[in-house]
Design goal:
The chain is mainly α and 127 residues long. The chain is built from 5 helices and no strands. The protein has helices spanning 5-27, 36-43, 46-51, 66-91, 97-125. The longest helix has 29 residues, at 97-125.
């Protein structure tokens, strides 16, 4: 049992801390623009979930599906937007720099949790 209860509880704590940092980056500085980044957290895994079923199940096949590649492309756009949007907002003076740091830190926690979760449960379902 690779992913036990402790792993799931730890991942949920990391996810909650990431969302807490994102919400606090809005609430502490009285500007709710960093909350837009939270929507990228919610929508980032969706293209891989939708278009991921078009990937070949044969590991030796050298065929790449353009639909699956488009899903990865959309996911990468959303992930880069999640990190780039706070930088642009802080550079233009819309949000404070500490709010930017908190928002990016929250994004790292959320995206890291998503990656670790998908890695653990994909490895478990292979057997």
């Amino acid at each position: 049992m690779a992913a036990g209860v402790r792993t799931i509880v730890g991942l949920s704590v990391c996810l909650a801390c990431g969302f807490l940092l994102s919400i606090l980056s809005c609430a502490l500085y009285g500007n709710w623009w960093p909350l837009v980044v939270v929507f990228t957290y919610a929508f980032a895994p969706l293209p891989n979930a939708i278009f991921g079923r078009y990937v070949s199940s044969d590991p030796l096949a050298d065929v790449s599906s353009s639909v699956a590649d488009f899903g990865r492309f959309l996911t990468s756009i959303l992930v880069v937007s999640g990190f780039g949007l706070p930088l642009v907002l802080a550079h233009s003076g819309i949000i404070a720099v500490p709010a930017m740091v908190m928002s990016i830190g929250g994004g790292l926690l959320v995206y890291g949790t998503i990656i670790v979760y998908s890695t653990l449960f994909r490895a478990q379902s292979d057997f």
